Amino acid sequence: MLQGKTALVTGSTSGIGLGLAKALARQGANIVLNGFGDIDGARAELLAIGVQVAYHGADMGRMADIEDLMKYSAAQFGRVDILVNNAGIQHVDDVQDFPPARWDAVIAINLTSAFHTARLALPAMRSANWGRIINLASVHGLVGSAGKSAYVAAKHGLVGLTKVIALENATTGVTCNAICPGWVLTPLVQQQVDAKAVQHGLSNEQAKQQLLREKEPSMQFTTPEELGELALFLCSPAANNVRGVAWNMDGGWAAQ
Ligand code: NAD
After folding, report:
1. Which of 61, 78, 87, 130 is deepest in the core (most CB within 10 A)?
2. Annotated catalytic, 151?
3. Which residues, given as ranges, of the chain have pLDDT below 50?
4. Smallest CA separation from ligand 1 atom 36, residue
5. Distance CA 87, CA 12 (A)
C-alpha cells in the first residue's frame, strides 16, 4: 500500500514509534528513524522488513536540529510523505513543584516539534497533493490527570494543532489526524510502573494492575502493534476524508 512512500517517524528507536515505523515499513514505506538509545537495533528490525532506512539524531526539542532533520529526509528520499510526530517525554510533579526547565522540555518535544516538522513537511506534501500527518497525542490530549500539567497541556495543544492543520489542508490530499492511546507498556510507562512499585511497596505485576485499575476500564494495555494498524488505516485510501480527528485507543479511559 505504501511502496515508494517515505515515512518520518520521530522518536522511533523504541516503544510506540518503533511499532508504527515497523507497521509502515511492512506496507513498503521507506523509513527515516529518529531518537536515542538502541539505534542499531531499531535500524536492524526495519532493514529486516526489506525497506530503506535512514537515521537522523535530531533532538526534537531543538528547532535547528529539526530543520536539519527535515533537510536530511528530503535529501535521502526526495520528500516526506508520511509524518508521524511521536517523540515525547513525561514528567510527573504537581504544578507548585514542577521544575520550569522540565515544563519547557515537555512542551518543546511533545508539542512545538510537531509545529516545526509539519510546517517544513507541508510544502512538498501539498505540491504532491498527498500527505499524511499523524500526531501521537494521548488520552491526555482529551482529559487531564493530576501531576501531568506539562504533558496534558502539550497533548491538548497537539490535538488543537491537529485540527488546524487538517482545516488548512481540507481541500487537498493532505490529511492530519491524532491518535490518543491510553496506557501502552513502553519504557515511558514502565518508569511510572517502577515509581508506583517503589512508592507503594508493590511487585512489578501488582503496580501494572494498579495503574490499569485507576484509569483503564478494559484492564489491558494497548499495544504498539494495535496503534500501528490504526496508523495504517489513516494512511489508506479509505481514510481520505478522515480529517482532524483525535481517535482514542484507550480501553474506555475517556468514556468514563
Ligand atoms: P518511549 O520512551 O518508549 O519512546 C520515546 C521515543 O522518543 C524514543 O525513541 C526516544 O529516544 C525518543 N525521544 C525522547 N526524547 C527525544 C528527543 N528530545 N528528540 C528525539 N527523540 C526523542 O515512549 P512511548 O511510550 O513509545 O511514547 C511515544 C509517544 O506516545 C509519546 O509522544 C508519548 O507521549 C505517546 N503516548 C504514550 C503512551 C504510553 O502509554 N506509553 C500513551 C499515550 C501517548
Report:
1. 87
2. yes
3. none
4. 138
5. 7
